[in-house]
Amino acid sequence: MPELSHRRRLLVLAICCMSLLIVSLDNTVLNVALPAVQRDLHASTAGLQWTIDAYTLVLAALLMLAGSTADRIGRRKVFLAGLVLFSAGSLLCSLAPNLELLIAARMVQAVGGSMLNPVAMSIITNTFTDPRERARAIGAWGAVVGISMAAGPLVGGVLVESVGWRSIFWLNLPVGLAALLLTLRFVPESRAPKARRPDPVGQLLVIALFGSLTYAIIEAPTAGAATSLPFGAVALAALAGLLRYEPRREEPLIDLRFFRSAPFTGATVIAVSAFAALGGFLFLSTLYLQNVRGLDALHAGLWMLPMALPTFLCAPLSGRLVGSTGPRLPLLVAGAAMTASAVLFAAFDAETSDGTLFLGYALFGIGFGFVNAPITNTAVSGMPRAQAGVAAAVASTSRQLGQTLGVAVVGALLAAGVGSSSYREAFVSAATPGWWVLTACGLAVLTVGAATTGPWARGTAERAAAQLDAEEIKEAVGAPGPR
Predict the structure, then answer these.
(1) Are 98 and 41 in contact (CB under 8 A)?
(2) Is residue 464 within 8 Å of 285, Cβ to Cβ?
(3) Would you state the pLDDT for residue 195?
(4) Which of 27, 48, 36 is nearest to 151 (CA)?
(5) What is the pLDDT of residues 77-98, one digit of tens each?
(6) For 255, phi and psi rounded to 5 degrees?
(7) Could you give phi then psi for residue 280, rounded to 5 degrees?
(8) Could you tell me if 270 and 263 are in contact, meaning their C-beta atoms sit under 8 angstroms apart?
(9) What is the rounded distance in angstroms from the CA atom of residue 440 to the CA atom of residue 450?
(10) Which of 119, 125, 168, 469 is the least crowded, having the fewest Cβ atoms under 10 Å away?
(11) What pLDDT, on the 0 to 100 scale, is given for residue 383?
């Protein structure tokens, strides 16, 4: 790809951020609308979980395929296809007459979404080649998540109260159309120098792993062990199959060689933990504010601002810190703040007081604002640029898998705790195990962040990058190196 002017690079960044905006805004807006969807479509707690997880699950399962496909056939082509599918899925969501069709339409959205975020990140990493400039661009990218979190609850609250929950999906249509037209005009085509071949067996194993694991967790409280355990066994078998099959392929869907780098492995674990915390946090907070406190969607959205605004303000600061000092400090701040927030709810019932509820939301917003930029930067730094799409897709997959598992685990614990009791009376105590899970997620961000950002970890990243380059050269001349 030819070198672009500074203005053109910024324009490409803005276009890529538009795709992130509609995907992120869709999730935050939908969380505020969950109680309205529950009333209108007569959904259970498990039904609400599937409304969220059907999207994140499909997204997680297809992100790596989308990243490698974009590297192979062209990132601009795949990005354009993603915009079309995501917009079409949004329209179908707004027309869904029942919960089952809403979930199916969410899956169509997810197929399109899988072609947007990792591909957009790959476009960014190939457009901004200077490490410091790239870190600032990723910080701006992370700020878009903050914007969506700040605007989503308010916009969603206004739309749900004034028009209805279906209108939240209309938001994606004008933004998606604008991004489509701008991409056609300004985003150059790029692809990896060496095309990667498809890996259908690996893709099927990933789908089996993610799908069966999520189903087992969500349905366990109602379906029981007789139904959930076989799906858990399928998940274990799929994981074992991936670990055995992928290293034998010359061009695997999941290149396990990336995990020789401690920072890359740490970024993956941190992404799963942080986004599991986010998914569980939003799910519990939305149901508490509307179904227990009795707030309407607009006032519930206003109560989410103490979390959303710090995320918006801290994300660009985190990007600048990553560019100037590295990822260690932002990760330590993120882990400490997220852990403190979850402990307030788990040990001190922060929901029961306005002051502690505000403090808990603000701490979580600070933590989540600091965590996104170091995840992305660490995942792609040190990797060969030819594999940028795959590396970015693994990081994005980790985020979506984390959010899927967060909603599944926390929702299952909540459903089991409430049981047949009065929802309002039982909610706070039933939610406590979920908050302890989120505490563990925050501690994982803190400890793994500290362990994988020091001199030893940087050394493993340098050795992994050198080995990847050497093995790619051997394979290029017909003498494959060991995996």
Answers:
(1) yes
(2) no
(3) 62
(4) 27
(5) 999 999 999 999 999 999 999 9
(6) -85, 100
(7) -65, -40
(8) no
(9) 15
(10) 469
(11) 62
